Amino acid sequence: MISLISMAYNQQHFTEMLLTSLADPECADVPFELVFIDNGSSDSTPDLVQNFPLKRNANFLGLHYHAFPENRGVAQAVNQGVKLAKGDVILQADNDIIFGPSSFSILKSWISRHPGAMISPNWPWIQKKLGRTFFTSSQDITSKKMHYLKNSGMRAPLEKYRATGSCWMCSKKLFQKVNGWDVEYKNICASDDFLWKIALTGAARFTVPCPVYHPGKITRGSLPKNSAQQEKDLKRFNQYWGGHPEDRELLRKHQSQAGLVPDPLPRKSFWRSLFSSGI
């Protein structure tokens, strides 16, 4: 059984799209439970989640719904979700994720072959191809669009040494090995910190071809870029890691210090190499 963990603070229209995809047995096509953490929503999210007809998917094994009285941030929501999860395999998805046909079985096949790894769908590639408005409401989730999503998603490239923080799968054992997410992060850097800790365990990371759609930056963009909380998160990351979460060379340095082979940097294209060298 897969334990799917998701969370939301309002944004019920996005959550409805997630649930619509989960109710489709062609998308959530292996047994799963849903652990949903409500971060103090003031809209109709509680009623939507608790009354959505997920049972029409025979693979759905039950809902664990937990509501915080106020928004405690994504890190605390993820940790709470893992505590409630009954499965040994965790699949975390932001509430604006849409699972396309065969998504669950594809991800599960990867984790079955690499049980100690972290797996994520290559949604950034799909987002770039389809755009951020390919799905805007649950009415957009038609058989025609889902078929197109599957065809596009299966052409996404496989990327080693990488996983994304918006949708990922790993064993509960690996999650607990790094003590989960740091709850001091409230908006940004929480997933970056988690992924860096995973990298320093030496675990393999794969971003795989899989038809999962994510409009991107919905959760992270809920606060202004210059908000005090984001500045606080970035400062905490810098104090702990000694730099910025987008500094790949810094992660390589930490890996080397830990006795690990550093992740290779992405290969530059021929023209980009010429440009950066000043030729």
Search tags:
279 residues; alpha/beta; 5-stranded mixed sheet; disordered C terminus; 10 strands; Spore Coat Polysaccharide Biosynthesis Protein SpsA, Chain A; 11 helices; 3-stranded mixed sheet
Gap between N and C termini, in Å?
55 Å
User: Treating each run of at least 4 consecutive H or I residues as one helix, how many helices?
Assistant: 11
Please give the CATH architecture. Answer: Alpha-Beta Complex
What is the approximate shape? globular
Give the overall pLDDT as a whole number.
91
CATH fold annotation: Spore Coat Polysaccharide Biosynthesis Protein SpsA, Chain A
CATH class: Alpha Beta
Structural class: alpha/beta
What radius of gyration results from the CA coordinates? 19 Å
Question: Quick recap of the structure?
Answer:
The chain is of the alpha/beta class. It has helices at about 10-20, 45-50, 75-85, 105-115, 125-130, 145-155, 170-175, 190-200, 230-240, 250-255, 270-275; strands at about 1-10, 30-40, 60-65, 90-95, 100, 120, 160, 165-170, 205-210, 210-215. It has a single domain, classed as Spore Coat Polysaccharide Biosynthesis Protein SpsA, Chain A, CATH 3.90.550.
